[in-house]
Amino acid sequence: MARKLPKVDVVIVGVGWAGGIIAKELTKKGLKVVGLERGKERKTEDYFMVHDELRYALRYELMQDLSRETITFRGNERIRALPMRQYGSFLLGDGLGGSGVHWNGQTFRFLPYDFEIHSKTVEKYGKNKIPADMSLQDWGITYDQLEPYYDRFEKTAGISGEENPLAGKRSDKYPTPPMKKTPAIQMFEKATKNMKLHPYMMPSANLSESYKNPDGIQRSACQYCGYCERFGCEYGAKADPVVTVIPVANKTGNFEIRTHSNVRRILKTGNKATGVLYTDVTTGEEIEQPADIVVVTSYVFNNIRLLLMSGIGKPYDPNTGTGVIGKNYAYQVIKGNAIGFFDKKEFNTFAGAGSLGMVVDDYNGDNFDHSHVNFIHGGMISLAQTGLRPIQNNPVPGGQPTWGKDFKANSVKYANRFLTVASQGSSMPFKRHFLDLDPTYKDAFGDPLIRITFDFEEQDRQMAKFLAGKCADILKEMGADHIDSMKDLGPYDITTYQSTHNTGGVIMGADPSTSAVNNYLQMWDMDNLFVIGASAFPHNSGYNPTDTVGALAYRAAEGIIKYRDKGGQVV
């Protein structure tokens, strides 16, 4: 029998970026909020002088224990899904702050085209441009409607950047200037300008200068140590929930965080959520936390899994195309890259920051004419100097030995003589890409794991090949002596790291029959339940998702207040 606690105004499931923003905004309005986090507490002091590549980058100190909970994966429905027991394609964060602690800090706004992608594609190219098996749909919100919330998130995080000449209009400039331009970045800038492209500095959550945000949070500037991705920041220079939004919520006195609390069910009566059931993982005790409003802000997979295990919303059926929970899973296509080797130039690539780089968006979204290519959308192309750590980075030119004396000699020669120009391609939704509960495999509590059914499609292969060619063209203009680029995109490989940009499954829209949440991320089927995160994306863009997650969280916070005041579906 679960122990039942006194009811609170709001219970939040998962305290990362989305949960932290919701907690901050609601507690400032006087609501009593409990945040449940299944991992342990974290603070900046945990990372003082801990530049340990082996511990964090290769042994995944900040990540979820896959022996207790993981995902299962299959490329299509004819294959039995198997559990992911070692990290590969993506990393699942664990602990207070979630993936917002170990991210790189690359903070892009999606393009106006993204939010009305179906309408805009049909309007310009006709309905036959969209493959019959692509489940493309508009988001139920426009860029202009979301823009004020982008601005709020970027000011909270102190994003350092400069205006993207090919993006949507901004209501204000970035709160801090762009980061430094290294010699490699300057080469990229010169080459792309020579090619009549439109380079701009990558928007960065690694502060370019000291900054105080609108909530009064003061943080120091980045030191360019290169330990961002898979690491916590010892300076607090990288914006993460632990140093930005959670302290503001704590200061109100209206927020209680309970770590080591694994939420296993959303409780309900009829069409109302009544609270959550969680297990205290330190004792094994089951606890019921009643609440007037339930807000699910955990990672994509857990958002979907909780809804399915709790019997909330209609599960997606790929055979009929009906149902919404688990629909439109999308990932990222980032294999379209090129590496340039330089015989007579050296670069200090060991230095850098998670979002130090320069980008061109000439081949992203619908920024170029797609009439004569066999895909829609595209991706950003960048040269990023994130700080290459020695264990993981020693490429040699293609055609050279990959072991033995010559390999060692080339590894030394090219250690500081190569640059990567990379694309990050969008991921379009397809009818047979979805998430459901695995019928066989369970977690440590006996609950079913979430199952991914996904593979790259012809859309992805055509786009990746196109973008890889553009990356190679840029390196050629930069003067590389030898260039290796991707020639063909093979099947999706879950064993090799690509990105942690999983999206979809609880998608937003204007129609309850094709979406799970409205544009305030309020469930159509249960108006006191809000599900927030990249699970709301109907597709994934050619960018990192965090800026859009942050913007949607700010809008959802506004929607929760409106619901508290008036009830019903928020409009």
TrEMBL record:
Residues 434-553 form the Glucose-methanol-choline oxidoreductase C-terminal domain. Pfam families: GMC_oxred_C (PF05199), GMC_oxred_N (PF00732). Residues 160-181 are annotated as: Disordered. The keyword Ribonucleoprotein does not apply. The keyword Oxidoreductase applies. SUPFAM superfamilies: FAD-linked reductases, C-terminal domain (SSF54373), FAD/NAD(P)-binding domain (SSF51905). GO terms for molecular function: flavin adenine dinucleotide binding; oxidoreductase activity, acting on CH-OH group of donors. Keywords: FAD, Flavoprotein, Oxidoreductase. Residues 220-330 form the Glucose-methanol-choline oxidoreductase N-terminal domain. Belongs to the GMC oxidoreductase family. PANTHER family: LONG-CHAIN-ALCOHOL OXIDASE. This is GMC family oxidoreductase. It comes from Neobacillus cucumis. The lineage of its organism: Bacteria, Bacillati, Bacillota, Bacilli, Bacillales.
